[in-house]
Write a structure and sequence with these properties.
By secondary structure, this protein is mainly α. It contains four helices and two strands; from the N terminus they run ααββαα. The longest helix has 16 residues. The protein is globular. It starts with a helix and ends with a helix.
Length: 78
């Protein structure tokens, strides 16, 4: 796994989150995208206006911060 991270810069961990957890994270993302207070934190890289990045998502919804300490991820780190 360390070799993959060093080569790719990320790890793809299959089924790290349950389908329900993924749905909850999608809803959290949608709530940020729909919140006018966060419009300045949405980055687009082309003329389509499609959001490509949300700046500082950890502070915008508690699920993002909670996902960092998800048991399936901690098992790998510890």
């Amino acid at each position: 796994m360390n070799k993959q991270f060093e080569t790719d810069g990320f790890l793809h961990i299959k089924q790290a989150f349950s389908p329900e957890e993924v749905e909850n994270l999608i809803r959290a993302t949608e709530s940020i995208l729909e919140n006018d207070d966060y419009k300045k934190d949405l980055l687009s890289i082309d003329a389509t206006g499609h959001t490509h990045k949300i700046l500082y998502p950890l502070g915008k919804h508690p699920l993002f911060l909670q996902s960092l300490v998800h048991p399936s991820l901690l098992d790998i780190l510890l």
